[in-house]
Amino acid sequence: MTNMDHQSPERDGETLLTVEGVGKRFSGLQALQDVDMTVNSGEIIGLIGPNGAGKTTLFNCISGAFPPTSGTVTLEGNVISGLPAHKVARAGLARTFQITRPLEELTVVENAMVGAHIHTRRRQEAREIALENLEFVGLSDRAEEEAGELTVGAQKRLELARAISTRPKILLLDEIMAGLTPQESNQMLGLFRQLRERGTSLLIIEHDMKAIMNISDYVKVLDQGQGIAFGKPNEVVEDDRVIEAYIGGFDVDA
Ligand SMILES: Nc1ncnc2c1ncn2[C@@H]1O[C@H](COP(=O)(O)OP(=O)(O)OP(=O)(O)O)[C@@H](O)[C@H]1O
């Protein structure tokens, strides 16, 4: 397979997100080194790699949790690396977190409103946006319950509703399917497809290989902080460097 770059004529859509030469150093540890990748409009890209490969660190550099040590990230041509997270969100990039913790003392709808408030100070307008997105994730009948009462699966859908209430052009999902039942995972994959149909791009970290290979248009593979492959799911699983990084290979039929 080819280590296809972002100019590949096979890819549809306009370039939305560009990661160029991104590095991140934590005192003695080079967690990311010279990572390049792009996400086009309407694409679902899977970001995979063994434990400690740097996936969450890359999400943090893209979403403004902290700045990269080197390199740049642009969204629609505007530099977003180095901006604080709320400005990155306002520019059109939302993320979910590996460990979802809703504000338990708030209701379900109030949690989703936190996302909507990045665009509006008006409570009623934020509530309408939040309710619309709770309906989308199948939680509208629980809108007035305390968020702490929700099951893990429902908390994940609330996290998705909060993130999409910022009306992102691109959504970064960090292991949002972890801890879900097979039925809940399928439901989540259905939501991802619907988001793509609405034109939202998705960049997804997920350990469930079968799910990631099934849903992604392209897959980016990191190993020890570096990009080692980029391609279609069926190409990536046959790449020697990728197989080596995942000693024992993939089990996508599990
Ligand atoms: N804030 C931090 N300070 C110091 N080191 C960190 C920090 N965050 C991550 N690291 C280190 O950077 C490396 C990459 O970690 P990261 O969490 O990005 O990997 P990952 O691919 O997301 O792993 P996993 O699949 O286990 O979640 C690891 O060695 C990790 O210990």
TrEMBL record:
GO terms for biological process: D-alanine transmembrane transport; L-alanine transport; L-isoleucine import across plasma membrane; L-valine import across plasma membrane. SUPFAM superfamilies: P-loop containing nucleoside triphosphate hydrolases (SSF52540). It comes from the Archaea. Residues 17-249 form the ABC transporter domain. Keywords: Amino-acid transport, ATP-binding, Nucleotide-binding, Transport. One of its GO terms (molecular function) is L-phenylalanine transmembrane transporter activity. GO terms for cellular component: plasma membrane. Probable component of a branched-chain amino-acid transport system. Belongs to the ABC transporter superfamily. This is Probable branched-chain amino acid transport ATP-binding protein LivG. It comes from Haloferax profundi.
